[in-house]
Design a protein that fits this description.
Shape: globular
Strand order of the largest sheet: 1-2-3-17-7-20-5-4
CATH topology of the largest domain: Double-stranded beta-helix
Largest sheet: 8 strands, mixed
Length: 326
């Protein structure tokens, strides 16, 4: 990318994670992005993630305008897997999980039948200690997954079982952003999700989704699922034991199986998690940073942190998987 207003350098040798830094303070990001949208899309195709640094991004609203300069229609957040707060129009807090916990690498909403193609993260308030958002390249990870594991998942897909309610996980009202059961049922039918109302105000959903996906621009096949993250082995053993004892396996907040219903081996789930950890590329957040991630080509995670931290997220370019895609 040739532009006298910025400095461009790769942060990894693959190339993966490109840094574009403004040379002078005060350069407005929305206008700069709007004039280079196709160049930036090409850079994302090549590098998977782009860090935009040193631009004038004063607040969540300006961040939203910058994201819309990439893609005018930002997305809402249905079928949620974590609690988030909307702080500006289609701009959300990132996952509100305890500061002492890792959030493992994942593709956003890869447990669903549709998902955002592009993610935008904003360093509104970087933590004083820790709190990085590492990314990992599927081009590095996917070839390292053993052929027999890829083949089994590709053939059967992934079965996700989730329970919503006042005593487990989040409520279905929060996850589906409605208090109307009929709306939830319509969404489940439209998305090919089996559902069952349980207890006083509980909901259990079961869906079989893709294990791999095909990039809509580059035509690459990538590993694309939440199996390793939703799998019970992702929980500390003593916590997993308590959950199973209290709720039973079918009542767990979430779990993942092979698409034919067979259990996924603990060592397979851990293999995927370890491959992502080994491929991790990280940077230290600065106030005003914007990280743009191709949700097909890169996974993202969150490190533990200390102190106040607020990283915001926006999403765009909805992709819907056809049943034949699995």
């Amino acid at each position: 990318m040739s532009d006298a207003a910025v400095t461009v350098r790769p942060l990894h040798e693959e190339p993966f994670l490109l840094e574009i830094e403004a040379r002078e303070p005060g350069l407005a990001l929305p206008g700069w992005v709007a004039g280079r949208r196709e160049e930036l899309r090409t850079a994302l195709d090549r590098c998977g993630a782009v860090l935009l640094r040193g631009f004038d991004v004063a607040d969540p609203q300006e961040f939203g305008r910058a994201a819309r300069a990439f893609s005018p229609e930002l997305l809402g957040y249905l079928e949620r897997a974590a609690t988030r707060t909307e702080v500006a129009d289609k701009v959300f807090t990132s996952t509100e999980l305890g500061e002492d916990q890792w959030i493992p690498f994942h593709h956003e909403m890869s447990y669903s039948h549709n998902w955002p193609s592009l993610l935008y993260f904003y360093g509104d308030l970087p933590a004083p200690v820790g709190g990085a958002t590492p990314v990992a390249s599927e081009r590095r990870v996917f070839p390292l997954i053993p052929a027999e594991v890829r083949e089994r998942f590709t053939r059967h897909g992934v079965r996700y079982v989730r329970n919503y309610g006042p005593d487990v996980n989040e409520s279905w009202q929060e996850a589906f952003q409605t208090t109307d059961r009929a709306e939830v049922e319509a969404y489940c039918r439209q998305s090919g999700t089996d559902f069952e109302w349980t207890g006083g105000d509980g909901l259990r959903t079961t869906s079989v989704r893709q294990a791999v996906a095909r990039h809509p621009r580059t035509a690459e096949t990538v590993w694309f699922n939440h199996a390793h993250l939703f799998h019970l082995s992702n929980v500390e053993p003593e916590v997993a034991e308590i959950l199973v004892e209290e709720y039973g396996e079918e009542g767990l907040p979430r779990n993942a199986y092979y698409g034919d219903g067979a259990p996924i081996e603990d060592e397979v789930a851990e293999l995927i998690r370890s491959l992502y950890r080994e491929a991790a590329v990280s940077f230290t957040w600065r106030r005003g940073d914007v990280l743009v991630v191709d949700n097909f080509l890169a996974t993202h995670a969150r490190e533990p942190f200390r102190g106040d931290r607020r990283i915001l997220v926006a999403m765009s370019d909805l992709y819907t998987e056809s049943p034949a895609g699995r």
